[in-house]
Design brief:
There is one protein chain. This protein is an alpha/beta fold. It folds into 2 domains: about 180 residues, 3-Layer(aba) Sandwich (D-Maltodextrin-Binding Protein, domain 2), CATH 3.40.190; about 100 residues, D-Maltodextrin-Binding Protein, domain 2. It has a 6-stranded mixed beta sheet, with helices on both faces. Strands 7-6-8-5-9 form a 5-stranded mixed beta sheet. β1, α2 and β2 form a beta-alpha-beta unit.
Length: about 325
């Protein structure tokens, strides 16, 4: 047989292997335990939803799905560990807007590239923020909050989980959009943050329904307005910030999505994405998310990638305008 014939046979074999290997990865997946790394601690909304999603995966796949929390370090700890895992679909990470869309412009240097080191799998939910004050605060609307800030420059304060968080940049947008001057008070502990707002030590904050629920039920906090363009299904009587006298088009919310390490086969990513869509369509999952004040999302991996790219640019502009820096 000639060298030319051998070369042709080899080329055909390689082509055939390419065709038939790709589907095999998805057909054999998952073949062992799946792990979901979360950059938040136990009891937080991302952790709760990761466990709900893990249960849906277990029911469908018949494999154990472990949820592992790696909080701290502005998301660096979770992502640094995660990006070194095997890219076979058995390692997933539930990550949010902060470490992926804000950190690239907030820090001069980060140990990962969110668009190169991670493969978008599927958007899970949006977490709308709510303008919240102490239950005994004399402020009862965003209009009154802005009026107080304008009348007392630098005296009205807002609490956040830290510099460059969505809450910090969202509150800074409130300042910018209302032509007022407020005082930023960062906290490391969410419980302490909400307690300070409840006692009136800090004037207001942006928080989620899930985080504030126990304080609201105990009548220590009151919700003024949702920081989105439309009202929440879980709180239809709560006005938007714009309806409550705030800046037009004000929209501050975070998103949570599943990602895989770079190099994970597209067909495996597609199979996991299908399970996300299936889980989000189930009534018990949607009811649980809405009870936490979260908005079920969904969509394709491509759409998630586009959202990430758009938000990196959007939040980069906000960071530049506010001068926020974590370095």
């Amino acid at each position: 047989m000639s060298k030319k014939s051998l070369a042709t046979i080899a080329a055909v074999a390689i082509f055939a292997a390419t065709i038939f290997t790709a589907p095999v990865a998805a057909q054999g997946f998952p073949s062992k335990q799946v792990r979901i790394t979360v950059s938040y601690g136990g009891g937080t909304a991302p952790d709760i939803v990761a466990r709900l999603m893990a249960e849906k995966f277990r029911e469908s796949w018949g494999q154990q799905v472990l949820v592992e929390g790696r909080p701290g370090g502005a998301g660096f700890i979770a992502i640094e560990a995660f990006k070194r895992y095997a890219p076979d679909g058995h390692e997933l990470a539930m990550l949010d807007t902060g470490p992926l869309a804000i950190n690239p412009s907030l820090f001069k240097k980060i140990p990962y590239d969110p668009e190169r080191d991670l493969v978008p799998v599927g958007l899970v939910f949006y977490a709308p923020f709510i303008v919240t004050v102490g239950a005994d605060s004399p402020i009862n609307s965003v209009r009154e909050l802005i009026a107080a800030a304008r009348a007392n420059p630098g005296k009205i304060s807002y609490a956040t989980p830290g510099v460059g968080t969505v809450q910090h940049l969202g509150a800074a947008q409130m300042e910018f959009g209302s032509n007022s001057q407020m005082l930023h008070v960062p906290y490391k502990d969410m419980g302490q943050l909400l307690s300070s707002v409840a006692t009136g030590d800090v004037s207001w904050t942006l928080t989620t329904v899930g985080s504030s629920m126990s304080f609201v039920q105990a009548k220590k906090l009151k919700l003024l307005a949702v920081a989105t363009k439309t009202r929440l299904a879980s709180h239809p009587d709560l006005p938007t910030v714009e309806e409550s006298g705030g800046p037009a088009g004000y929209d501050v919310q975070s998103w949570i999505a599943l990602f895989a390490p770079r190099g994970t086969p597209p067909d495996v990513v597609g199979k996991i994405n299908q399970e996300i869509q299936k889980g989000l369509q189930q009534k018990d999952m949607r009811d649980r998310l809405q009870a936490l004040g979260l908005t079920p999302a969904g969509g394709t991996p491509t759409q998630l990638g586009q959202l990430l790219g758009n938000d990196i640019r959007r939040w980069g502009e906000v960071v530049k305008r506010t001068g926020a820096s974590a370095d």
